[in-house]
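Here's my example:
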Amino acid sequence: MHKYVSYQTCQYHRLGCYYKLIIHQRLYGTRSGAYHWKTYAEIGALVTAFGSGLVKLATEHTQQRLTYGTHWKLALYSVNREEWCIAEHGAHAYGLASVALCNY
């Protein structure tokens, strides 16, 4: 019998390995004149901080403990930028589903 593992959990575990193995490699960059890059280790720390903040907010708001399988969702509305990626990875790190919203 196969155990069900969500896409969000798989994606975070795959990236989590990279956060630990290739910590000094560049992952995301922003440009204001020249590019400023963040490494896997820096992004991993931001992902953990954002995801744990989401859990804290949800727990305080609902007075219930947020656990895997509670079907919490996060809607993200942003242009393509590193903060959007960090928010999505942070949601996946704690078992939240994310939905990208856009206006074309």
Strands lie at 26-32, 34-39, 73-77, 97-101.
